[in-house]
């Protein structure tokens, strides 16, 4: 079973890779997360100008690269020339902009899927226009079973609502489960949620219990310290999405067994 859907498991999920130590949503970050022992990878997907799904969080390039402007204004080939390590400093023994000019770019979804052929993937769809292309890549790369596809906008997840895909929650599904405002999508098998949202604790015991009754897992982002992870596991959550996989893996050794 995909560990992201296993209610008896406690996966440690690399947030945009290991974003404390390498530029987020890059192959360098994903490799670092796997090296540190992460059980799965979480990342974001957008559409390039040529329709190719690429891995990037923001709608623009400004915050993390040496370029500015919308991701959607450049083709995937042009994004491969962007310096995605340009602004990263991060933690570690070598402070400074050590990833500048190191060949770290904006990867395509296909590149990431093929680079980590055995790793479960939690994929955040950032815009409706890219969903069909994401579905094609997952099918063509034989990655459907190990991927869970989620996103804020339920309309961006329509391509994944039925077999063979594993559907994660939209913001609407999370709100419906949290506030009891109706039924979440019955195909939803995974809720990736923040620890707190506008002062509300999202993964409460009640929320986790409601998800469990729907045979769904709950993963919480973004948690980088051991006490918070232990508290969440005590409340019954499944996975922890983290920038520091090794910290949460060490905490897991001290957590009580899942109920």
What do you see in this structure?
The chain has a single domain (3-252), classed as Phosphatidylinositol (PI) phosphodiesterase (TIM Barrel). Helix content is 25%, strand content 18%. The protein has eight helices and eleven strands. The chain has helices at 27-36, 76-79, 109-115, 131-140, 171-179, 205-213, 226-234, 245-252, and strands at residues 12-15, 40-47, 53-55, 121-125, 147-150, 167-168, 188-194, 196-197, 200-201, 217-221, 239-242. Strands 1, 2, 3, 4, 5, 6, 7, 10 and 11 form a nine-stranded mixed beta sheet that branches. A two-stranded antiparallel sheet has the order 8-9. The radius of gyration is 18 Å and the shape is globular. The model has no long low-confidence stretch (mean pLDDT 96).
Tell me the layout of helices and strands:
Elements: E1 12-15, H1 27-36, E2 40-47, E3 53-55, H2 76-79, H3 109-115, E4 121-125, H4 131-140, E5 147-150, E6 167-168, H5 171-179, E7 188-194, E8 196-197, E9 200-201, H6 205-213, E10 217-221, H7 226-234, E11 239-242, H8 245-252
Parallel strand pairs: 1-2, 1-11, 2-4, 4-5, 6-7, 7-10, 10-11
Antiparallel strand pairs: 2-3, 8-9
Overall mean pLDDT stands at 96
User: Which regions are unreliable across 5 or more consecutive residues at pLDDT < 50?
Assistant: none
Discrete helix count: 8
- What do we call the CATH topology? TIM Barrel
State the fourth-level CATH superfamily.
Answer: Phosphatidylinositol (PI) phosphodiesterase
Please report the total strand number as a whole number.
11
- Shape, per Cα inertia axes: globular
Number of domains: 1
* Computed Rg: 18 Å
Helix content: 25-40%
CATH level 1 class label: Alpha Beta
Major sheet attributes? 9 strands, mixed
CATH A-level architecture: Alpha-Beta Barrel
What percent strand?
15-25%
Class from secondary-structure proportions: alpha/beta
Compressed to H and E, one letter per element, the order equals: EHEEHHEHEEHEEEHEHEH
């Amino acid at each position: 079973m995909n560990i992201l859907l296993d209610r008896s498991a406690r996966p440690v999920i690399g947030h945009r890779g290991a974003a404390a130590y390498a530029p987020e949503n890059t192959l360098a970050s994903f490799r670092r997360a796997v090296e540190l022992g992460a059980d799965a990878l979480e990342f974001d997907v957008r559409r390039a100008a040529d329709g190719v799904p690429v891995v990037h969080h923001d709608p623009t390039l400004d915050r993390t690269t040496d370029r500015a402007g919308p991701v959607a204004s450049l083709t995937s080939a042009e994004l491969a020339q962007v310096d995605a390590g340009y602004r990263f400093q991060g933690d570690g023994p070598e402070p400074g902009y050590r990833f500048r000019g190191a060949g770290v770019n904006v990867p395509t979804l296909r590149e990431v899927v093929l680079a980590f052929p055995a790793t479960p993937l939690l994929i955040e769809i950032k815009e409706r226009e890219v969903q069909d292309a994401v579905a094609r890549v997952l099918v063509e790369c034989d990655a459907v079973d190990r991927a869970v596809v989620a996103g804020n906008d339920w309309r961006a997840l329509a391509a994944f609502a039925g077999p063979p895909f594993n559907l994660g929650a939209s913001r609407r599904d999370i709100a419906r489960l949290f506030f009891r405002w109706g039924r979440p999508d019955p195909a939803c098998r995974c809720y990736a949620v923040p620890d707190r949202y506008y002062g509300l604790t999202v993964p409460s015991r009640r929320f986790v219990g409601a998800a469990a009754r729907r045979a769904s897992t709950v993963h919480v982002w973004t948690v980088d310290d051991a006490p918070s992870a232990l508290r969440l596991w005590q409340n019954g959550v499944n996975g922890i999405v983290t920038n520091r996989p090794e910290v949460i893996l060490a905490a897991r050794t001290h957590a009580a067994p899942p109920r």
